[in-house]
Design goal:
Elements (H helix, E strand, L loop, with lengths): L3 E5 L6 H10 L16 E5 L3 H10 L3 E3 L2 E6 L14 H9 L3 E8 L14 H31 L4 H22 L11 H7 L10 E7 L18 E4 L1 H7 L4 H11 L5 H12 L2 E7 L3 E8 L4 H6 L3 H5 L1 E8 H6 L3 H6 L4 E3 L9 E7 L2
The structure holds guanosine-5'-diphosphate and magnesium ion.
Length: 361
């Protein structure tokens, strides 16, 4: 299963342009047999320069990057939580996503109407976030009603559990009333577990794409609403043109512009980080491959991403940092320098580890 990012925003802000550019680079779907193909869903490879270097080192026949899924969700409008503009349907789609990318329009164009009549990023962010907040409040109100019904006649631990729930839902609801998104609250792990089944929209991690005009790509953006937020300025139109070009022309363009990656690559990498995901590698003559795990995953579960047998029969992992491996000229050199370490069941796999798993079948 891959992680999915919902692209959210008002109509006509550049969501589909961004989505199309993201998904233009065709991936070899045969490598990801569990992926379904739907028109508004796109599988995107996560760019990672380490794959190239490992593959050269081990003369791998192929490279398999890790992926995330983007979902193009139709525009939300004011009143979406009340069902305006098919709002409920779109909100339900967002509910299924693991994280949200909010596209905000900051480009002027006489031809393309703004749904609220003027280009005003701060107000657009407020409109969208308010709709998400209203939707969450409806969810919480329903949950509160259920909990208040169920608590009647309970005693002891059961009573305590429902009391805890009601207190938490009330407290979160009050914060939403102040316009605070749930992902900005500090919640205890236990509290996060209590709200997890509700799939609250503003509890999902969120980042912003500021879709700026062609001439404004390097202009600094200072929006109070986005302080402390992950925000990436791109020009969606320019990105969609870049996505059509062959790789070496993109390289030339980046060099001329003095940047190392396209805006879209930046978006993909940040989205991956937003999901709290890290990458470990397997590398040999057959293939060099990136594997996605959540930060904090232990070696057996990480091995289980490759095959369940690897997890069940896990004995140990031979681990080396990718850079150490490359700098040592390969496994033999790394072994001589003592850079390959043997790890057991409690080892927390690190970003950039190259792993060989030993297991019983
Ligand atoms: N000038 C300009 N037009 C853009 C840009 N991004 C999108 N558009 C145009 O705005 C219109 C709406 O874009 P679209 O991606 O369909 O918006 P969506 O409704 O958010 O999916 C289309 O005609 C796009 O070509 C941009 O960065 N600059
Ligand atoms: Mg669209």
């Amino acid at each position: 299963m891959s992680f999915s990012i919902g692209i959210v925003g008002l109509p006509n802000v550049g969501k589909s342009t961004t989505f199309n550019a993201l998904t233009k680079k065709q991936i070899d779907i045969a490598n990801y047999p569990f992926c379904t193909i739907e028109p508004n869903k796109g599988i995107v490879e996560v760019p990672d320069h380490r794959l190239q270097q490992l593959s050269e080192l081990n003369k791998s026949a192929k490279i398999i990057p890790t992926i995330i899924e983007f979902i193009d969700i139709a525009g939300l409008v004011r009143g979406a939580h009340k069902g305006e503009g098919l709002g409920n349907k779109f909100l339900a789609t967002i509910r299924e996503c693991d994280a949200i990318v909010q596209v905000v329009r900051d480009f002027q164009s006489g031809d393309i109407i703004h749904v609220e009549g003027r280009v005003d990023p701060a107000s657009d962010i407020e409109t969208i976030n308010l709709e998400l907040i209203f939707a969450d409040q409806q969810t919480l109100d329903n949950a509160l009603k259920k909990s208040r019904d169920k608590i009647k006649g309970t005693k002891g631990n059961e009573f305590k559990e429902y009391t805890k729930q009601i207190e938490l839902f009330d407290r979160i609801n009050a914060k939403l009333n102040e316009g605070i998104l749930i992902h900005d609250l500090t919640l205890e792990p236990e509290e996060k577990e209590l709200i997890a089944p509700l799939n609250l929209l503003t509890a999902k991690p969120m980042m912003y794409i500021m879709n700026v005009g062609e001439s404004d790509v390097s202009k600094p953006i200072t929006l109070a609403a986005l302080q402390d937020k992950v925000m990436i300025p791109i020009c969606a139109k320019l990105e969609s043109e870049l996505a059509e070009l062959p790789a070496d022309e993109v390289k030339d363009y980046l060099a001329a512009a003095g940047i190392t990656q396209t805006g879209l690559d930046h978006v993909i990498v940040e989205a991956y980080k937003l999901l709290n995901l890290i990458t470990y590698f397997t590398s040999g003559p057959k293939e060099t491959r990136a594997w996605t795990i959540t930060r904090g995953t232990l070696a057996p579960q990480a091995a289980g991403k490759i095959h369940t047998d690897f997890e069940h029969g896990f004995i140990a992992a031979e681990v080396v940092n990718w850079e150490h491996l490359v700098q040592s000229g390969g496994e033999v050199g790394a072994k001589e320098k003592g850079l390959i370490h043997l790890e057991g069941k409690l080892y927390e796999v690190q970003d950039g580890d190259v792993c060989v798993f030993r297991f019983n079948v």
